[in-house]
């Protein structure tokens, strides 16, 4: 038979149990809203431009800057586009930046993703909506600006998770073959 705990021993044990329960309850409360989907919406992304698009430049984070045998470093993908074409939100987001960087018009969407800041960037792009405007998946929020980022009209689509760049094509759930240009 076990020995009953003295009042001095019961108090630390009682507080340890209370602290464990409080921590578990707190962490569960944080996890539920960040992992649940709102209004039954799918977490599957859609492409920012409708239809099948040739990929003009692939995601290449390990490339070298400048000329050489290695492909150039490219922190996103370039999709064939038409100037003035509507850009749609791949997932729900909020416009967090709309302006120019190095004379290139850019629109950035911030997406809620489990306590990590996820942003997608679109350039050259312009929007008529203000910073803080909520955009639902599939809604047109910007247009391809009449400025060349590629050798022909294109849309650069990038993704950052926290401070790291990521390939946005991984969200589309299909393999993408790169075109050959000779």
Any key phrases for this structure?
11 strands; 182 residues; globular; 1 helix; Glucose Permease (Domain IIA)
> What is the oligomer described by this structure?
single chain
Please give the CATH class of the largest domain.
Mainly Beta
Strand content: 25-35%
User: How far apart, in Å, are the first and last alpha carbons?
Assistant: 84 Å
Q: What's the average pLDDT? A: 78
CATH architecture of the largest domain: Distorted Sandwich
CATH superfamily of the largest domain: Glucose Permease (Domain IIA)
Largest sheet: 8 strands, antiparallel
Number of domains: 2
Topology:
Blueprint: H1 7-35, E1 55-57, E2 77-80, E3 86-88, E4 93-101, E5 104-113, E6 116-123, E7 125-126, E8 134-135, E9 140-144, E10 154-161, E11 164-166
Antiparallel strand pairs: 1-2, 2-10, 3-9, 4-5, 4-8, 5-6, 6-10, 7-9, 10-11
Q: What does this 3D model show about the protein?
A:
The structure is a single chain. With 182 residues, the protein is an alpha+beta fold. The chain folds into two domains: 7-36; 55-172, Glucose Permease (Domain IIA) (Distorted Sandwich). It has one helix at residues 7-35, and strands at 55-57, 77-80, 86-88, 93-101, 104-113, 116-123, 125-126, 134-135, 140-144, 154-161, 164-166. The strands form two sheets. Strands 1, 2, 4, 5, 6, 8, 10 and 11 form an eight-stranded antiparallel beta sheet that branches. A three-stranded antiparallel beta sheet has the order 3-9-7, with no helix packed on it. β4 and β5 form a beta hairpin. The longest helix has 29 residues, at 7-35. It starts with 6 loop residues before the first helix and ends in a 16-residue tail after the last strand. The model is unreliable at 21-41 (pLDDT under 50).
């Amino acid at each position: 038979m076990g020995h009953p705990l003295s009042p001095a021993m019961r108090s630390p044990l009682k507080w340890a149990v209370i602290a464990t329960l409080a921590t578990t309850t707190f962490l569960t409360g944080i996890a539920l809203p960040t992992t649940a989907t709102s209004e039954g919406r799918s977490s599957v992304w859609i492409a920012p431009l409708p239809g099948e698009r040739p990929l003009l430049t692939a995601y290449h984070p390990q490339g070298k800057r400048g000329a050489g045998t290695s492909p150039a470093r490219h922190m996103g993908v370039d999709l064939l586009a038409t100037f003035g074409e509507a850009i749609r939100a791949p997932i729900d987001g909020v416009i967090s930046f709309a302006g120019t960087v190095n004379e290139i018009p850019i629109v950035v969407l911030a997406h809620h993703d489990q306590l990590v800041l996820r942003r997608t960037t679109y350039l050259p792009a312009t929007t008529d909506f203000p910073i803080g405007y909520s955009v639902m998946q599939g809604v047109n929020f910007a247009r391809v600006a009449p400025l060349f980022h590629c050798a022909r009209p294109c849309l650069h689509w990038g993704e950052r998770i926290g401070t790291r760049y990521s390939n946005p094509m991984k969200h589309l759930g299909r393999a993408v073959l790169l075109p050959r240009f000779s």
